[in-house]
UniProtKB/TrEMBL annotation:
Required for proper homologous chromosome pairing and efficient cross-over and intragenic recombination during meiosis. Belongs to the MND1 family. Residues 110-154 form the Leucine zipper with capping helix domain. One of its GO terms (biological process) is reciprocal meiotic recombination. InterPro entries: LZ3wCH, Mnd1, Mnd1_HTH. It comes from Vanilla planifolia (Vanilla). One of its GO terms (molecular function) is double-stranded DNA binding. Residues 3-49 form the Mnd1 HTH domain. This is Meiotic nuclear division protein 1 homolog. GO terms for cellular component: nucleus. It is found in: Nucleus. Keywords: Coiled coil, DNA recombination, Meiosis, Nucleus. The lineage of its organism: Eukaryota, Viridiplantae, Streptophyta, Embryophyta, Tracheophyta. Its main location: nucleus.
Length: 162
């Protein structure tokens, strides 16, 4: 058992900056690696090796049970899939319906929304580059007034003059 003041005094001896001891202890308390209890007006901190072992053991047991339940759920889903595949018949009617679905894939609302978003992004990028070009033209004209005609010819040659 130790008080925070005692830990702050021990910190520099162990290579820990005394100002960060409080933060380190608080993070250890938050992670349940160190226990904290208020006795009277003092706050005591302690850690028992068996507590850490118990926490690891409990975490291991929980993870193993999660794995088992996940495997059981996977088996149930595989059985359901197998039973559904048995009920499905491969027929000409089904193949024709699948072909018809592929014909209408161009009218898919999700694909259309994705395309609209891409168009919006491209439009904003084009506007941004246009603004950048005009800003560059203004900057060059104001900083190099003697070369204004030469810059205008250069803009026309590369297709930047609108």
């Amino acid at each position: 058992m130790a008080k925070l003041k005692e830990l702050e005094k021990l910190g520099p001896k162990k290579g820990v900056i005394s100002q960060s001891v409080k933060d380190v202890v608080q993070s250890l308390v938050d992670d349940d690696l160190v226990l904290k209890d208020k006795i009277g007006t003092s706050v005591y901190f302690w850690s028992l090796p068996s507590c850490a072992g118990n926490q690891l053991r409990n975490a291991s047991i929980k993870l193993e049970s999660d794995i088992l339940s996940g495997k059981k759920h996977l088996e149930e889903l595989n059985e359901l899939r197998a039973s559904l595949m048995l009920d499905r018949e491969e027929s000409n009617e089904r193949e024709q319906a699948l072909e018809e679905v592929t014909l209408y894939a161009d009218n898919d609302p999700v694909a259309l929304e994705t395309m609209r978003n891409a168009i919006q992004v491209a439009k904003s990028a084009a506007n941004r580059w246009t603004d950048n070009i005009f800003t560059l033209q203004q900057w060059c004209s104001s900083n190099f007034p003697e070369a204004k005609e030469q810059l205008e010819h250069t803009y026309k040659d590369v297709g930047l003059f609108f």
